[in-house]
Amino acid sequence: MIDDEHRPDATSDQPRPRPDRDALAPSETHPVGPLAEPETSPWNVPNALTAFRIVLVPVFAWMLLVHPQEIGWRLLSALIFTVAILTDTLDGYLARKHNIITRFGKLADPIADKALTGMAFIGLSIIDELPWWVTVTILVREWGITIMRFVVLRYGVMAAGRGGKIKTVTQAIAVIMYLLPLPPQVHILAVVVMAIAWLITMVTGLDYVREAIRLRRRAHPRR
Protein backbone atom coordinates (compact mmCIF):
# COMPACT_ATOMS: atom_id res chain seq x y z
CA MET A 1 0.00 0.00 0.00
CA ILE A 2 1.17 3.58 -0.67
CA ASP A 3 2.09 6.13 1.99
CA ASP A 4 3.38 9.02 -0.12
CA GLU A 5 1.20 11.85 -1.19
CA HIS A 6 0.72 12.14 -4.94
CA ARG A 7 0.82 15.63 -6.33
CA PRO A 8 0.30 16.35 -10.04
CA ASP A 9 2.97 18.33 -11.83
CA ALA A 10 2.01 21.99 -11.70
CA THR A 11 3.45 22.51 -15.15
CA SER A 12 1.43 19.73 -16.76
CA ASP A 13 -1.32 20.65 -19.22
CA GLN A 14 -3.28 17.58 -18.27
CA PRO A 15 -6.45 18.17 -16.21
CA ARG A 16 -6.26 17.12 -12.57
CA PRO A 17 -7.58 13.54 -12.28
CA ARG A 18 -10.59 12.86 -10.08
CA PRO A 19 -9.96 10.78 -6.92
CA ASP A 20 -10.44 7.05 -7.25
CA ARG A 21 -13.63 6.19 -5.40
CA ASP A 22 -12.32 2.67 -4.85
CA ALA A 23 -9.19 3.82 -3.03
CA LEU A 24 -8.67 2.28 0.36
CA ALA A 25 -8.89 4.26 3.55
CA PRO A 26 -5.45 4.63 5.11
CA SER A 27 -4.38 1.94 7.51
CA GLU A 28 -2.49 2.88 10.64
CA THR A 29 0.81 1.57 9.27
CA HIS A 30 0.27 2.38 5.60
CA PRO A 31 -1.56 5.72 5.34
CA VAL A 32 -3.06 6.28 1.91
CA GLY A 33 -5.65 8.60 0.53
CA PRO A 34 -7.87 8.49 -2.56
CA LEU A 35 -5.51 7.75 -5.41
CA ALA A 36 -5.95 8.59 -9.07
CA GLU A 37 -3.09 6.53 -10.47
CA PRO A 38 -4.01 3.65 -12.78
CA GLU A 39 -4.03 0.25 -11.13
CA THR A 40 -1.03 -1.93 -11.85
CA SER A 41 -0.97 -5.69 -12.42
CA PRO A 42 -1.82 -7.73 -9.32
CA TRP A 43 1.14 -10.00 -10.03
CA ASN A 44 3.87 -8.23 -8.09
CA VAL A 45 6.15 -8.72 -5.09
CA PRO A 46 4.14 -6.66 -2.53
CA ASN A 47 1.00 -8.68 -3.27
CA ALA A 48 3.01 -11.90 -3.08
CA LEU A 49 4.28 -10.89 0.35
CA THR A 50 0.74 -10.08 1.46
CA ALA A 51 -0.48 -13.47 0.24
CA PHE A 52 2.47 -15.15 1.98
CA ARG A 53 1.51 -13.39 5.21
CA ILE A 54 -2.04 -14.71 4.90
CA VAL A 55 -0.72 -18.25 4.37
CA LEU A 56 1.45 -17.93 7.47
CA VAL A 57 -1.57 -17.22 9.70
CA PRO A 58 -2.88 -20.84 9.88
CA VAL A 59 0.70 -22.15 10.10
CA PHE A 60 1.36 -19.87 13.04
CA ALA A 61 -1.95 -20.84 14.66
CA TRP A 62 -1.19 -24.55 14.37
CA MET A 63 2.28 -24.18 15.86
CA LEU A 64 0.99 -22.16 18.81
CA LEU A 65 -2.15 -24.12 19.63
CA VAL A 66 -0.98 -27.69 19.06
CA HIS A 67 2.33 -27.35 20.88
CA PRO A 68 1.81 -24.52 23.40
CA GLN A 69 4.16 -25.83 26.11
CA GLU A 70 7.05 -27.10 23.99
CA ILE A 71 9.98 -24.69 23.93
CA GLY A 72 11.07 -25.53 20.40
CA TRP A 73 7.61 -24.98 18.95
CA ARG A 74 7.18 -21.74 20.89
CA LEU A 75 10.43 -20.46 19.40
CA LEU A 76 9.20 -21.42 15.93
CA SER A 77 5.86 -19.69 16.61
CA ALA A 78 7.68 -16.51 17.60
CA LEU A 79 9.87 -16.78 14.49
CA ILE A 80 6.90 -17.25 12.14
CA PHE A 81 5.08 -14.30 13.70
CA THR A 82 8.17 -12.11 13.41
CA VAL A 83 8.71 -13.03 9.75
CA ALA A 84 5.06 -12.32 8.97
CA ILE A 85 5.24 -8.91 10.67
CA LEU A 86 8.39 -8.05 8.70
CA THR A 87 6.67 -8.90 5.40
CA ASP A 88 4.12 -6.20 6.23
CA THR A 89 6.90 -3.63 6.51
CA LEU A 90 8.60 -4.88 3.36
CA ASP A 91 5.51 -4.96 1.14
CA GLY A 92 4.64 -1.42 2.19
CA TYR A 93 8.15 -0.21 1.39
CA LEU A 94 8.17 -1.89 -2.04
CA ALA A 95 4.69 -0.61 -2.89
CA ARG A 96 5.71 2.96 -2.06
CA LYS A 97 9.04 2.72 -3.88
CA HIS A 98 7.57 1.34 -7.11
CA ASN A 99 4.18 3.10 -6.89
CA ILE A 100 2.26 -0.19 -6.96
CA ILE A 101 -1.50 0.08 -6.49
CA THR A 102 -3.82 -2.90 -6.88
CA ARG A 103 -7.32 -3.76 -5.74
CA PHE A 104 -5.98 -6.97 -4.21
CA GLY A 105 -3.46 -5.03 -2.15
CA LYS A 106 -6.06 -2.51 -1.02
CA LEU A 107 -8.28 -5.28 0.29
CA ALA A 108 -5.87 -8.02 1.34
CA ASP A 109 -3.18 -6.00 3.13
CA PRO A 110 -5.32 -4.78 6.07
CA ILE A 111 -7.07 -8.16 6.26
CA ALA A 112 -3.71 -9.96 6.47
CA ASP A 113 -2.51 -7.59 9.21
CA LYS A 114 -5.64 -7.98 11.32
CA ALA A 115 -5.78 -11.76 10.78
CA LEU A 116 -2.20 -12.20 11.93
CA THR A 117 -2.38 -10.06 15.06
CA GLY A 118 -5.90 -11.28 15.80
CA MET A 119 -4.80 -14.91 15.68
CA ALA A 120 -1.87 -14.11 17.95
CA PHE A 121 -4.08 -12.52 20.61
CA ILE A 122 -6.79 -15.18 20.32
CA GLY A 123 -4.22 -17.97 20.44
CA LEU A 124 -2.57 -16.58 23.55
CA SER A 125 -5.99 -16.36 25.23
CA ILE A 126 -6.93 -19.91 24.20
CA ILE A 127 -3.81 -21.29 25.88
CA ASP A 128 -4.61 -19.18 28.98
CA GLU A 129 -1.60 -16.90 28.77
CA LEU A 130 -3.47 -13.66 28.03
CA PRO A 131 -6.77 -12.57 29.62
CA TRP A 132 -9.70 -12.72 27.22
CA TRP A 133 -10.77 -9.16 28.06
CA VAL A 134 -7.47 -7.90 26.65
CA THR A 135 -7.96 -9.84 23.42
CA VAL A 136 -11.61 -8.85 22.98
CA THR A 137 -11.07 -5.14 23.59
CA ILE A 138 -8.09 -5.01 21.24
CA LEU A 139 -9.88 -6.89 18.45
CA VAL A 140 -13.02 -4.77 18.76
CA ARG A 141 -10.86 -1.65 18.50
CA GLU A 142 -8.81 -3.01 15.55
CA TRP A 143 -11.68 -4.17 13.37
CA GLY A 144 -13.94 -1.31 14.42
CA ILE A 145 -11.43 1.32 13.34
CA THR A 146 -10.73 -0.53 10.08
CA ILE A 147 -14.43 -0.59 9.20
CA MET A 148 -14.83 3.02 10.26
CA ARG A 149 -12.05 4.07 7.86
CA PHE A 150 -13.99 2.64 4.92
CA VAL A 151 -17.20 4.36 6.02
CA VAL A 152 -15.54 7.74 6.62
CA LEU A 153 -13.99 7.81 3.12
CA ARG A 154 -17.14 9.52 1.87
CA TYR A 155 -16.31 12.49 4.09
CA GLY A 156 -12.54 12.58 3.68
CA VAL A 157 -9.29 10.78 4.42
CA MET A 158 -8.37 10.14 8.03
CA ALA A 159 -4.76 11.13 8.54
CA ALA A 160 -2.63 8.36 10.01
CA GLY A 161 -0.47 9.70 12.79
CA ARG A 162 2.47 8.31 14.70
CA GLY A 163 0.15 6.78 17.26
CA GLY A 164 -0.99 4.08 14.85
CA LYS A 165 2.56 3.01 14.03
CA ILE A 166 3.60 3.09 17.68
CA LYS A 167 0.58 0.96 18.52
CA THR A 168 1.48 -1.60 15.86
CA VAL A 169 5.11 -1.83 16.98
CA THR A 170 4.27 -2.18 20.68
CA GLN A 171 1.65 -4.83 19.93
CA ALA A 172 4.16 -6.82 17.87
CA ILE A 173 6.84 -6.59 20.56
CA ALA A 174 4.36 -7.60 23.26
CA VAL A 175 3.11 -10.61 21.27
CA ILE A 176 6.64 -11.79 20.47
CA MET A 177 7.61 -11.54 24.14
CA TYR A 178 4.53 -13.57 25.11
CA LEU A 179 5.33 -16.18 22.46
CA LEU A 180 8.91 -16.64 23.64
CA PRO A 181 9.44 -19.11 26.51
CA LEU A 182 10.73 -16.48 28.88
CA PRO A 183 11.52 -17.19 32.55
CA PRO A 184 8.99 -15.77 35.06
CA GLN A 185 11.27 -12.90 36.05
CA VAL A 186 11.49 -11.71 32.44
CA HIS A 187 7.85 -12.50 31.63
CA ILE A 188 6.89 -9.69 34.00
CA LEU A 189 8.44 -7.32 31.47
CA ALA A 190 6.28 -8.87 28.74
CA VAL A 191 3.19 -8.16 30.86
CA VAL A 192 4.25 -4.53 31.24
CA VAL A 193 4.83 -4.16 27.49
CA MET A 194 1.44 -5.75 26.77
CA ALA A 195 -0.23 -3.32 29.20
CA ILE A 196 1.44 -0.40 27.41
CA ALA A 197 0.36 -1.80 24.03
CA TRP A 198 -3.24 -2.16 25.26
CA LEU A 199 -3.29 1.42 26.58
CA ILE A 200 -1.86 2.86 23.35
CA THR A 201 -4.36 0.80 21.34
CA MET A 202 -7.31 2.21 23.26
CA VAL A 203 -6.07 5.82 23.25
CA THR A 204 -5.32 5.85 19.51
CA GLY A 205 -8.69 4.24 18.86
CA LEU A 206 -10.45 7.11 20.61
CA ASP A 207 -8.32 9.57 18.62
CA TYR A 208 -9.50 8.01 15.34
CA VAL A 209 -13.13 8.15 16.48
CA ARG A 210 -12.76 11.87 17.25
CA GLU A 211 -11.14 12.41 13.85
CA ALA A 212 -14.03 10.61 12.12
CA ILE A 213 -16.57 12.78 13.93
CA ARG A 214 -14.62 15.90 12.95
CA LEU A 215 -14.55 14.88 9.27
CA ARG A 216 -18.28 14.18 9.27
CA ARG A 217 -19.08 17.53 10.87
CA ARG A 218 -16.83 19.31 8.37
CA ALA A 219 -18.62 17.58 5.49
CA HIS A 220 -22.05 18.42 6.90
CA PRO A 221 -21.70 21.75 8.73
CA ARG A 222 -24.69 22.95 10.73
CA ARG A 223 -26.56 25.81 9.18
Compose a concise summary of this entry.
This protein is mainly alpha-helical and 223 residues long.
Beta strands, count:
0
Using the coordinates above, name the CATH class.
Mainly Alpha
Q: Supply the helix-strand structural class.
A: mainly alpha
- Topology as a string of helices (H) and strands (E): HHHHHH
Largest sheet: none
Name given to the CATH homologous superfamily: CDP-alcohol phosphotransferase transmembrane (TM) domain
Enter the CATH topology name: Four Helix Bundle (Hemerythrin (Met), subunit A)
Quaternary: single chain
The dominant shape is globular
Mean pLDDT across all amino acids: 81
Residues in β-strands, percent: under 5%
CATH 2nd-level architecture: Up-down Bundle
Task: Outline the structure in words.
It is globular, with a radius of gyration of 19 Å. Helix 3 (103-126) crosses helix 5 (162-179). It has six helices and no strands. It has one domain (45-215): Four Helix Bundle (Hemerythrin (Met), subunit A) (Up-down Bundle). The protein is mainly α. 67% of the residues lie in helices and 0% in strands. It has helices at 45-66, 71-98, 103-126, 132-152, 162-179, 184-219. Residues 1-25 and 32-36 have low confidence and may be disordered.
